[in-house]
């Protein structure tokens, strides 16, 4: 079990960027992507996202499990949406007719060129958003999260709380392992998978409760230390200074432009409607 | 010093105590949420996530701001550690935050029950947590706008599975945590 945030992209071109750029890139990209429904443009967004992801130089073997889970989850979500939508397809241009291939057995859900296109577009869009989001997880120095959010306008007390959260993670992870080991020594079988969910939930209590209560009880020392240093009485400074260099500005500007173009195109072109590839339409 | 003030601060005050408990809640939730998942037999979508009980519990025990932060940032950190990305499902993080916020208002709204002993406190905590889960996760319906998901898909694939799993965790574990925390709280003089 590895809980600590992994800085896998260390030293890469993307990791050398001001961390605010990585956060804002995700924000602008996600809000641009959710406005686009033309599959050709969504595919283009995915290519852009993958190029951005590659610049973080995250070793694939280190994140293949995460990719697998993400792809599986997105596939289930998209497939399930297709089933539950019962043939209703969003973002079709006015007056568009559906070209139905057939119906799902038992459920009777129609499968059409439009529903397949919708599902594919949704899938590609999710993958693009995940590819943009991955560097945020693996190419930002975990020690820089507090200052990043503070400089993005988050009130400094909350930015400090974010910083503190990252700092607590390794020690809580260690406490958690110690608690597990202590329960194992007492004869608890952690691998046991018998019983219903309630029984299994009950078996987690001897691990969860001591971990949680110990963490809370230990908080008083941190609170006293902060109070003794007059936390909250004046503006806080951060050891690390963040400064946007020209490359950061260009990257940021590119993502802002992407968002603006997607928004304007949504009002002036058909980019916010589905485009059905001709080869999917039955003759 | 924390012990110097005789007056109880407002539930909306953001002092060092709130900051530290918020960070602890978010860190614990972020670390534990991905580890413990108990599948419910006969269902592919429903997992009981015991660590979720931390969100309403931190709200109930330390106030709405702590609850909001625990849910919001804890969920983002859990997503970040898993590789899903901090902001990919930002609306789900907000939903988690709303659960913590609403649960944090429980001691105020259930004041009469809250002062009648530990058992009543535990029952009120479970009830408040359950209401907060049902109401707070309504925010995931924003997936209908964000991802153009169908209403019935969000309902059957997302909302219902998540509230079933989280209700089980909340109703069982919030009282357990209240029972465990209250004596420690008294011992610490809080």
Return the CATH topology of chain B.
Answer: Arp2/3 complex 21 kDa subunit ARPC3
Number of helices of chain A: 9
DSSP E strands of chain B, number: 2
- Mean pLDDT value of chain A: 88
Low-pLDDT stretches of chain A: none
Note the run of SSEs of chain B as H and E: HEEHHHHHHHH
The oligomeric state of the chains shown is heterodimer
Cα-to-Cα separation, first versus last residue of chain A: 53 Å
Largest sheet of chain B: 2 strands, antiparallel
Round the mean pLDDT of chain B to the nearest integer and report it.
86
Rounded to an integer in angstroms, the radius of gyration calculated over CA atoms of chain B is 17 Å
Distance from N terminus to C terminus of chain B (CA atoms, Å) equals 14 Å
Global shape of chain B: globular
- Fraction of residues in helix of chain B: 55-70%
Topology:
The complex is a heterodimer of chains A (283) and B (190).
Chain A (H helix, E strand, L loop, with lengths): L18 H15 L5 H16 L5 H25 L15 E4 L6 E3 H26 L6 H7 L4 H30 L11 H21 L1 H10 L17 H23 L15
Antiparallel strand pairs in A: 1-2
Chain B lengths: L15 H17 L5 E2 L7 E2 L5 H9 L1 H19 L7 H15 L1 H4 L1 H4 L3 H19 L6 H4 L4 H38 L2
Antiparallel strand pairs in B: 1-2
Helix pairs in contact in B: 1-2, 1-3, 2-3, 2-4, 2-9, 3-4, 4-7, 7-9
Molecular structure report:
The complex is a heterodimer of chains A (283) and B (190). Chain A has 9 helices and 2 strands. Chain A is mostly helical. In chain A, strands 1-2 form a two-stranded antiparallel ribbon. Chain B is globular. Chain B has a single domain, classed as Arp2/3 complex 21 kDa subunit ARPC3, CATH 1.10.1760.20. The longest helix of chain B is centred in the last third of the chain and has 38 residues, at 151-188. In chain B, a hairpin with a 7-residue loop joins strand 1 (38-39) and strand 2. Chain B has a two-stranded antiparallel sheet with strand order 1-2. Chain B has helices at 16-32, 54-62, 64-82, 90-104, 106-109, 111-114, 118-136, 143-146, 151-188, and strands spanning 38-39, 47-48. Chain B is an all-alpha fold. Chains A and B meet through helix 1, helix 3, helix 4, helix 6 and helix 7 of A and helix 1, strand 1, helix 2, helix 3 and helix 9 of B.
């Amino acid at each position: 079990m590895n809980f600590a945030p992994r800085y896998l992209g260390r030293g890469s071109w993307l990791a050398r960027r001001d961390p605010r750029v990585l956060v804002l890139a995700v924000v602008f990209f996600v809000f641009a992507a959710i406005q686009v429904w033309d599959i050709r443009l969504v595919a283009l967004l995915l290519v852009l996202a993958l190029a951005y992801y590659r610049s973080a130089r995250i070793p694939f073997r280190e994140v293949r499990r995460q990719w697998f889970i993400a792809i599986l989850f997105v596939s289930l979500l998209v497939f399930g949406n297709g089933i539950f939508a019962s043939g209703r397809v969003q973002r079709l241009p006015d007056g568009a007719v559906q070209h139905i291939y057939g119906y799902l057995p038992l459920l009777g859900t129609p499968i059409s060129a439009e529903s397949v296109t919708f599902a594919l577009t949704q899938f590609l869009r999710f993958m693009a958003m995940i590819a943009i989001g991955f560097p945020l997880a693996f190419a930002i120095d975990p020690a820089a999260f507090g200052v990043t959010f503070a400089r993005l306008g988050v009130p400094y007390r909350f930015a400090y709380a974010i910083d503190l959260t990252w700092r607590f993670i390794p020690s809580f992870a260690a406490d958690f392992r110690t608690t597990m080991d202590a329960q194992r020594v007492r004869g608890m079988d952690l691998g046991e998978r018998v019983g219903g969910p309630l029984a299994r939930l009950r078996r987690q209590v001897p691990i969860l409760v001591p971990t949680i209560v110990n963490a809370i009880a230990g908080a008083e020392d941190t609170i006293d230390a902060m109070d003794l240093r007059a936390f909250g009485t004046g503006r806080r400074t951060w050891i690390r200074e963040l400064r946007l260099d020209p490359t950061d500005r260009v990257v940021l500007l590119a993502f802002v432009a992407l968002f603006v173009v997607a928004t304007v195109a949504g009002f002036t072109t058909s980019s916010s409607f589905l485009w059905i590839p001709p080869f999917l339409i039955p003759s | 010093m924390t012990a110097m003030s005789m007056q109880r601060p407002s539930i909306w005050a953001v002092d060092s105590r709130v900051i530290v408990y918020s960070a602890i809640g978010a860190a614990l939730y972020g670390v534990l949420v991905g580890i413990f998942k108990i599948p419910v037999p006969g269902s592919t979508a429903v997992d009981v996530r015991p660590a979720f009980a931390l969100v309403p519990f931190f709200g109930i025990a330390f106030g709405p701001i702590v609850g909001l932060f625990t849910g919001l940032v804890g969920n983002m950190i859990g997503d970040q550690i898993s590789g899903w990305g901090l902001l990919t499902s930002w609306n789900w993080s907000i939903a988690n935050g709303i659960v913590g916020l609403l649960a944090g208002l429980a001691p105020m709204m259930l004041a009469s029950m809250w002062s009648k002993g530990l058992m009543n406190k535990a029952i009120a905590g479970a009830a408040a947590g359950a209401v907060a889960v049902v109401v707070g996760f309504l925010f995931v319906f924003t997936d209908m706008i964000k991802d153009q998901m169908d209403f019935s898909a969000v309902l059957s694939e997302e909302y219902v599975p998540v509230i079933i799993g989280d209700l089980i965790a909340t109703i069982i574990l919030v009282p357990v945590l209240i029972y465990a925390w209250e004596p420690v709280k008294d011992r610490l003089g809080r």
